[in-house]
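The methods section describes the discrete structure representation at length, but only in general terms. Each protein is reduced to its one-letter sequence and a matching series of backbone shape codes. I believe one specimen quoted in the main text would settle the matter. An entry of this sort, consisting of the sequence and the corresponding backbone structure tokens, reads as follows.
***
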Amino acid sequence: MARWAEPRAGDVRRVIRLTGGPSLRVMKLPRLALSVRQPWAWAILHGGKAIENRTAGAIRAGGMTLGPVALHAAADMTEAEYRWGVDRLRRHGVAAPRPEALPRRGVIGRVEVVDIVTDSDSEWFGGPMGLVLARPEACAPIPAAGALGCFEWSPSGALAPPQPWMERWDRPSGDAVTAELFEDLPPSFRDRPQRPRRKR
């Protein structure tokens, strides 16, 4: 089974080595990164999410253009955001990992922005504009601080630790034993989660 080798402090920050038997593959991570909140960052790499929705102002102010970018998972993720994301992904036929399993505050891979659109038939398009993404590739999480827009990244600090609500997620009274009996069941909601209001 392939595994990601841990980068050493002296390694070039944008190169990660993947060892899998006799071959050695090198992933070059772009110097510019795009920060996306979880679970959407995970969905871009593993769930087929092909569009990242942004406002026109965010795209202009953030200097977002076509080309490869490192994918950064933002440090923050609220329970409301996760509930909405899990429900939305399930409607796309995608099962998201538990919240504490999603890395935050770190670069988790790379993806290429191949177009910027104002309209699309894609099920992932929510507007008002969208970055069309292709060729996602995951890497072992590299701790790094994030920023708005496209930004130059460098390794720093540590990944964000799980928040208390993440450990209790979908477990009655925090009972992990009960949850393990029904681990194949998808998360259920008494009421369909509402989309969290975006910060202005």
About this structure: Strands lie at 3-4, 15-20, 23-28, 32-36, 51-54, 67-73, 106-117, 129-143, 150-152. The chain is about 20% helix and 30% strand. The mean pLDDT is 82.
